[in-house]
Amino acid sequence: MTRTCPELPDPGVIELPSNRFLLHPLADRLLAPAIAAGVTANMASLAGLGFGLLAAAAYFHWEDARMAVLGWALMLCWHVLDGLDGRIARATGTASPFGRFLDGFADYGVFVVVHVAIALSLADPVASLGLALAAGAAHAAQAAFYEARRACWFRRLAGHFSVAPRPVAGGPIERLYNALEARLGHRATAFDRRLAGAEPGVRATLLARWARNARPAMHLLWLQSANARTHVILVACLFGDPRLAWWWELLVLTPLGLLSGLALRRAERVAEAVPLGCETRPVAGPPPAA
Which residue of 12, 27, 237, 274 has the fewest CB atoms within a 10 Å radius of its CB? Predict the structure, then answer.
């Protein structure tokens, strides 16, 4: 027998397939031309917000399926730019607290303008706005939870077991969002402290066990990604009632987030049940002699 440390998974396996195989590769391809053209990260964020405004204008006419599909396509363009701004900031060393705030503002702003445009297009705009606001509040909490758990996945598999405080760039609104994000998972836990204090072999075992048990819950959280929400808006419009997207936020994604949180905590408890020392596996070799 030989002691072997389990291999850690590719951190990207939790990414939504459309992100991993379409939107992120497009953002990667645009990085070099954008830098060569002098495009800054903040310019990319603002351009993404511009695509969001165009998407809202298209979705105001959602009853025409062609306009609904156009709105969806424009939101996909925003998703590409939303990935590009961070890449530009990292590649050029221009990441800043304001840039992070602008990126977050654009992210939420796109959904706000699209939902408001849809609400105003309906026969009962006042009631529709009320439902949209309720769904928007749920969206904010769900998105903070999703991003916190996604960041936790990536940082742990990269070997980072502490969380630096978020820089403040937006005053009370930014501090409120940071507090909500910390409450929903953007913080180090007792499991992080266990990982930080473990010797390398034990740490690899703990991480591999945790990742294996956490991955199903992380895949469920695909539904809470901005990309998935974009698809849901289109599907609801094509079904003839865009309010279905808001009910989806309230009645499906909210309990899904709660169940995923419980599953992720259980994954940590299961991982900590691993005995100290690396797992043992038999060494491959010729069969014993008869």
Answer: 12
